[in-house]
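Write out the bound-state structure for magnesium ion.
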Amino acid sequence: MTGTRSSAPSSPSAGEPQGSAREREIVEARVVVTSPGRNFVTLKLVTRSGVYGLGDATLNGRELAVASYLQDHVVPNLIGRDAGRIEDTWQFLHRGAYWRRGPVTMTAIAAVDVALWDILGKMAGLPLYRLLGGRSREGALVYGHANGRDIGEASDAVGGFLEQGFLAVRAQCGVPGVKKAYGISSGKAYEPAESELPAETVWNTPRYLETAPKLFERLRADHGSQVELLHDVHHRLSPIEAARLARDLEPYRLFWLEDATPAENQQAFELIRQHSVTALAVGEVFNSIWDCKHLIERQLIDYIRTTIVHGGGISHVRRLADFAALYQVRTGFHGATDLSPVTMGAALHFDTWVPNFGIQEYMFHSEETDAVFPHDYALREGRLHVGDTPGHGVDLDEALAAKYPYAPKQLPVARLEDGSMWDW
Ligand code: CS2
Ligand code: MG
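---
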């Protein structure tokens, strides 16, 4: 899918300063959908000078909705624009669309924003973190995903991460009587969007509330007090159940308890806070500062998870992070495998700069994905390090990408044992 201006990219004319308005003109925009193991949508913006930028536009299970939003409604507005007007383009796509916010819109805006920051970095010859204000730390602390069908298997999986040098690990385990518990998959790598139509799973809150504290009791007994442990409830509890779990987990000193209850009702977190001092993280499904304004202002959470791709890009997430800093809320960006290496690269530059950094989620992409998106970030001793390639440091091999056609896949759904729909 492409949009072009009749004149193709050409070399800058003699005498024009590097990065002039003419050189910065966007002359081509391509939306690339590829499935190297899983679906990814990428936006490529090309300037007259030939410098290009890449932005991730992947929304798991709704990929083509964002691809169409970009192709049909955004790309025609980009051709002929000055790639250097990052803020104005953001405001144009957000304010100017009239229909604001929402995951599809904000993911599309993020793709444009990140591609423009990438172009700025490449034209300036600077890595993205330097454009943002420079390095605040040497590397970004990351957490890996340890899963097991039962507590013993989950503990072994945590041990495996510690052997690889991880300092922080998220742990999930099967729940007796629950088929296909969240976080546990049949294959080796965890990948929830497994089938063309959503897989049906069955949820049982009482069994889960019994199991989760036992998992963490065992993990502390097996692995000691030094490792940072995290856990994701994946939005399944009511506020009072979430409060009970947060209190029951207190002895095991979690780094965070994530998405303990759905957060559309931001006030719900007041109840959890009244009952426990377990640190709370929320926000991977948010896409705007307005989704978490109350949570942050009232200091109801400790970590905000909204990351670049679903939160309107660097320009918006930077505002969110600055706002969160006023309340000592730190970042803990979403980083599951359904966010492409382009998002991971951009997020890591952000993590390298942002003063109120907490942690970064990191799951290994498949070899096929890594080959389609060559990048220069690297894991060393439990931290991810960005390189000094100008821009965000992640590229797209379009010839290889073309070999992996889109394959429709949706996320699972959950029901209670009586058949009622529940939050997955
Ligand atoms: C999860 C994700 O990483 C997480 O914390 O909540 O695995 C989430 O289920 C997927 O990103 C959904 O696409
Ligand atoms: Mg999560």
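---
Confidence is low (pLDDT under 50) at residues 7-16.
The domain at 132-422 is CATH 3.20.20.120 (TIM Barrel).
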